[in-house]
Amino acid sequence: MWQGLDEFLHVVEHGSFTHAAKAMEVSTSHISRQVQQLENRLGSVLFQRTTRKISLTDAGREYAIKLKAIKQELIDANTQLQGEQRQPKGLIRITGAGEFVAANVAPKIVEFVKRYPEVEVDMDFNNRNVDLVEEGFDLAIRFGRMQDSNLIARPLCPRNMTLVASPEYLKQHPAPNSPLQLGDHNCLIAMGKRWRFKFTDEIKEVKVAGNWRSNHPKALLSAALSGLGIAHLASDIVEPYVKNGQLVTLLDEFQVTDNASWLVYPRKDLMPYRVRLLIEHLLANFNDD
């Protein structure tokens, strides 16, 4: 019953009989023979074969999806049965940037590694929007709104934006009454030159400009504190400075509320157990906060 299934899934994963054979350290003829016998038993063609490439038939694609789900359930069942006798181990690569990741996410990951000491973590603090699959990352911590993509995004916690300026700046430049007046101000820009605001009936983007640009929130915060201009930053970053009077919030009624910090990871049919455990750990910890 099970003969040929592993060979079939390896061909699906690697895209060819030759690459599947290399991965399983067997001959190409062995892979081809096992898949052929599987097709004969099923009475259905799983691959369309040409001299140049192979591709899944509709039946083969549906069969592969079901087999992958069964294989994952089998892995999970074995893991649960073995319990604490089998500790998760191996490397988890994570990318993220900003003070929030360092101050709020990293300590929770440290707790995870202390609980599972055979797990290794490599955290890369990079402001680039890296390609997780291409560069071999398991997880990313990202801020903002998640666009449609081939990645899975799970919210860790909401993080609204706040518009701020120093009292010194506002003495010389009257506070705007509408986002549309930001064109008259020196705006401290992070990644993009368009800021989103909520008007009466819709959310609009307002184009801004200024003489200070940085992809690090602390650099923007420092510039705002010095009186250089108006910054658009996450509320948790500016809150202490608003409370002590070093910064003043602006246009609060126009702020959108759909920003969050997200846990992002590729869609994988067979995710390593250690990565799944860390995802569950982070989601559970942030939901408890």
Note down, in words, how this protein is organized:
The structure is a single chain. 26% of the residues are buried. The chain is built from ten helices and 14 strands. The two termini are 48 Å apart. Helices cover 41% and strands 24% of the residues. It is of the alpha/beta class. The longest helix is centred in the first third of the chain and has 25 residues, at 58-82. It has three domains: 5-83, Arc Repressor Mutant, subunit A (Orthogonal Bundle); 87-157 and 260-288, D-Maltodextrin-Binding Protein, domain 2; 161-254, D-Maltodextrin-Binding Protein, domain 2 (3-Layer(aba) Sandwich), CATH 3.40.190.290. Helix 1 packs across helix 2. The mean pLDDT is 87.
Kindly list the characteristics that best describe this protein.
289 residues, alpha/beta, Arc Repressor Mutant, subunit A, D-Maltodextrin-Binding Protein, domain 2, 5-stranded mixed beta sheet, 14 strands
Shape: elongated
Average pLDDT figure = 87
The CATH H-level superfamily of the largest domain is: Periplasmic binding protein-like II
Percent range for β-strand residues: 15-25%
CATH class descriptor name of the largest domain: Alpha Beta
* Number of H/I helices: 10
Order of helices and strands: HHHEEHEHEHEEEHEEEEHEHEEH
Count of discrete structural domains: 3
The main sheet comes to:
5 strands, mixed
Task: Describe the secondary-structure layout.
Elements (H helix, E strand, L loop, with lengths): L4 H10 L2 H8 L3 H15 L4 E3 L4 E3 L1 H25 L7 E7 L2 H17 L3 E7 L6 H4 L3 E6 L6 E8 L2 E5 L1 H6 L14 E3 L4 E5 L4 E5 L4 E2 L3 H9 L4 E5 H9 L4 E3 L9 E7 L6 H16 L1
Parallel strand pairs: 3-4, 3-5, 8-11, 8-12
Antiparallel strand pairs: 1-2, 5-14, 6-14, 7-12, 7-13, 9-10
Helix pairs in contact: 1-2, 1-3, 2-3, 5-10
